[in-house]
Amino acid sequence: MTMPWGVAVCIVDMVWAVLAGWVSTCLLVANEVARAMRNGEIGPFVVG
Fold this sequence. Notes:
transmembrane helix; membrane; transmembrane
């Protein structure tokens, strides 16, 4: 059974919106961490 084009487009739009929101959130967090590191509010991350 095939899926109507309208349903496929709706699903693609929802997936695109979720991915765009996720990328936007990741960039926002990375920007805040970089700002805090530049201002000396947090130091470099020590791993290990």
